[in-house]
Write the structure tokens for this entry.
Amino acid sequence: MNKLLPVVLMLSTINSFAQKPETFAKTITEEDLKKHLYVVASAEMEGRETATNGQRKAAVYIQDHFKKLGLQPGNQGSYQMNYDVYQDSLTSANLEVNGQAFNLDKDFNPSVSNIPATLRFSEVVFIGSNAIDSLKNANLGGKLLMIVGIVPAANRSQGGGLISLLQSKGVAGILSVSNVYPRTSTFSRRGVQTISGFRKTLSPQQYTVSENVARAIIGSDYDTVKNSLSIVKTYTANILLDVKKTTLTAQSSNVVGVLPGTDLKDEYLFVTAHYDHLGKRGDSVIYYGADDDGSGTVSVLEIAEAFAKAKAAGKGPRRSIVFMTVSGEEKGLWGSEYYSDHPLFPLDKTTADLNIDMIGRSDITRKGDTTNYVYVVGDDKLSSELKPISEGINKKYTKLELDYKFNDPDDKNRIYYRSDHYNFARKGVPIIFYYDGMLGGDYHRPTDTPDKINYPLMAKRAALVFYTAWEMANRNDMLKRDIPLDKGIFNR
């Protein structure tokens, strides 16, 4: 037995190193993708809205899978990279005109984006919706203005619109007169979520008010001037505006697992997807987000498993691979923005980001074959080497049709800006974004469910990402960054 042992070991070693990427790509199966997706896009995950219990449940599922694969936690011993999410909540609001108090929801509503403040004005400037030219040279600093209607549509394209002009002039408050009062339902007391607890600038305090409030301020003259489009007229009245709020702080997270490399372990390749979606409405309507982006999320899980099996077989990657699923994408690319501004691994040592967002369905509006394609975005923006590598890998292994329909940053759909690769690209990291299209009537609807996924096609697309990642992780050199970063792209 002892005499045979060296021979057995030698044969085992030869067999191990003879294994090719195809061996491990085959572990990315339709069955496993489906198994994961029916969990990630299940009712239990409640639509995975950022900073909710559903999102946190999904994070634990992803974390447990990474841990099971033997991936190392990416954030100082933790698989999760937390970031704060802030949301304002209105606690009370008051509006008085000449000592007369008006009722919330019946006669007025403040914008929840208003700052907590008590303001007292002794006059108001009434302006018509077409008075923008008359206001350009007016001194409006610290003034309270009244307009009829909400941000006049006719002015939205004129120098940023009426509201933008008023803000630039330092207007303190804006009363927008609306005919929706009294409201039949309670106005939301919660503001939009944000990942910044501080503001670069303060906007005017904005209130929507009833015509009864308008008449109390400017008297019977209101019925005369309300349809005067170009009027600018000042009225005297004592107006008290008061807002009290509290800021709620929650947390969300990116989930980060690392497969350490060998001789190039201090260089990194990222494979990313966002695992959040739109959550639920009430107790019964769930936005499952199976394709968007459950498909990308479970593909990351399967690609990570394929690489972990390769490493166990002695074919681990030369560069370290970071598998990261981010939250907050649907809110405005929050998770990837937070990562790119607080990187766990040096961005200048990150060779590329391969980002997957929606690869489980077909674009029925696409001309040509809808059963063997993937949209590819961004592969030619920062490195002249990336697109030829991507196309060569596809030609050799998967033979999908690579469609560049959405690759132009000026495309009307703005796909280049709408997923998490963007936050790597703006930092100069070469990227590829893999995408299937807009899903027709199921995009951002509760009907984006796991039963509608084309699992064979999704497995093939995931395999393309795996093969591309294999090449990126094992080639001798990091990708050249020889195409200048187009600053204009990131200011649009």
User: Anything to note?
Assistant: The chain has a mean pLDDT of 91. The chain has two domains: 20-86+250-491, 90-248. DSSP finds 14 helices and 18 strands in the chain.
